[in-house]
Amino acid sequence: MSLFIVATPIGNRSDITLRALQTLFSMDAVLCEDTRKTKQLLDFYLKDIPSQILGENPKIPVLLSFFEHNEAAKIPQILGDLKQGAQIALVSNAGTPIISDPGYLLVKACHETGIKVITIPGPSALTSALSISGLATDKVQFLGFLPRKHGKQTKIWQDIFASKIDQTVVFYESPFRLKKTLANINEIFGDIEISVARELTKVHEVVKQGKISDWLQDKKTLKGELVVLFRTHQK
After folding, report:
1. How far is it, in rounded angstroms, from Cα 218 to Cα 181?
2. Residue 167 region by backbone torsions, left for phi larger than 0, else alpha for psi between -120 and 50, else beta
């Protein structure tokens, strides 16, 4: 009676772990943020990974839709299935589930009802970006996806600035909102240096540093998913 939290690649499909493969192909069901994307991923492994790793006659388990807007409604049925002995895993579209993805309410409910939750660790955009950013990781504050409204965002930056804690701040951002967000940060922190990691583990992976003013003057729009990082107290 366990729920398995399984990390999947954030880009390069070779980043899957053996344990993740063995777990996914032994499940009765997999909860997916997007069943189509998960099926494409599992189809790829079913075709290219030897049966010695996946087990004899491997097959794709039942894929169940599980995302932000249906999570709460589906939890009772999932808990019931787990208590009846079903083997169930949770995956997100990419990376480690629950890190800015659905699943928190389900994991909380499992703990409250005595169902064991097992982690199958692996890729995460958060830790990957931190590891190659060149920024100190002694203290880190992760904000996930920021509020879109200027006022709510400003309050976050004001609180972080007022705390006077020297730390690395990390958040996810869309390339189309990046400049607005950086302009907002500039209002509070000034023209500080920002690191942006994009397309992590993919062919065009890059980490680029520059002052906020440099980013704002650059007329190019970055492509792909972005992880933005900066140190709060810069000399």
Report:
1. 15
2. beta
Per residue in 79-119, pLDDT (tens digit) is 999 999 999 999 999 999 999 999 999 999 999 999 999 99
CA angle 49, 100, 197 (to 5 degrees): 75
d(CA 77, CA 82): 9
Phi, psi of 33 (to 5 degrees): -65, -35
Three-state DSSP state, 113: coil
pLDDT tens-digit map of 38-70 = 999 999 999 988 877 887 788 999 999 999 999
Q: Which two tokens stand for residue 119?
A: 């982690």
H or E stretch including 18?
helix 18-24
Q: Measured between alpha carbons, how far is 188 from 231 in angstroms, rounded to an integer?
A: 13
What is the SS3 assignment for 138? coil
Closest Cα partner for 7 from 128, 125, 122, 87?
A: 122
End-to-end CA distance of the chain: 52
d(CA 18, CA 24): 10
The pLDDT of residue 235 is above 70: no
Amino acid at 145: F
Question: Given the structure tokens 């190659």, which residue do they identify?
Answer: 132
What is the rounded distance in angstroms from the CA atom of residue 121 to the CA atom of residue 39? 20
Could you give the angle at which helices 104-112 and 71-83 cross, rounded to 10 degrees?
40
The predicted model scores a pTM of: 0.93
